Amino acid sequence: MKTKTLFILVILSLFASFIGTAAAPSTVSATNSVTNVILLQSTFVEEKGMFFKFQVTGTFKDKDLKGTLLVAGKTIKLRCRAPVSANIVQCTAPGGTSSNYVGRSAVLSLNGFSFWIKVPSKKVECPSCG
């Protein structure tokens, strides 16, 4: 009986953390004016880990990019940068994140724009390789 009650409390707290995070207002700095974000790719890249690619409209600097991944009630900070093209942003999650949460639903956020994703797994074969 105690384990069943504990299990229900854990499930309810995870659900509450998803709802509480989704309802929280986003804080975007005044110097940064990102007007739109589109998730282009969510995949696992060998030697990089989880990799997310966004198309971003607006003006910003690398230091203004704030990315997070909320999975299983845990918020993971992403490392984001805008390489060559100013409208493409690439983010990676810390090592081990993919193997710990593979296949789970998660909320991916970049500067207040959020997306529901499934945590990508390591691919055995490369579908785009010829």
Helix content percent band: 10-25%
What structural class results from the helix and strand content? Answer: alpha+beta
N-end to C-end Cα span: 55 Å
* Beta fraction: 35-45%
- Total number of beta strands: 7
Which features would summarize this protein structure in a list?
130 residues; seven-stranded antiparallel β-sheet; 2 helices; 7 strands; 21% helix; elongated
Blueprint of the fold:
Layout: H1 2-23, E1 33-45, E2 49-59, E3 67-71, E4 74-81, E5 88-92, H2 97-101, E6 105-110, E7 113-118
Antiparallel strand pairs: 1-2, 2-5, 3-4, 3-6, 4-5, 6-7
Question: In words, what does this structure look like?
Answer:
With 130 residues, the chain is α+β, with helices and mostly antiparallel strands. Helix content is 21%, strand content 42%. The protein has 2 helices and 7 strands, in the order H-E-E-E-E-E-H-E-E. Strand 3 and strand 4 form a beta hairpin. The longest helix is centred in the N-terminal third of the chain and has 22 residues, at 2-23. The protein starts with a helix and ends in a 12-residue tail after the last strand. The relative contact order is 0.20. The model has no long low-confidence stretch (mean pLDDT 78).
Question: TL;DR?
Answer:
With about 130 residues, the chain is α+β, with helices and mostly antiparallel strands. About 20% of the residues lie in helices and about 40% in strands. The protein has helices at about 1-25, 95-100, and strands spanning about 35-45, 50-60, 65-70, 75-80, 90, 105-110, 115-120.
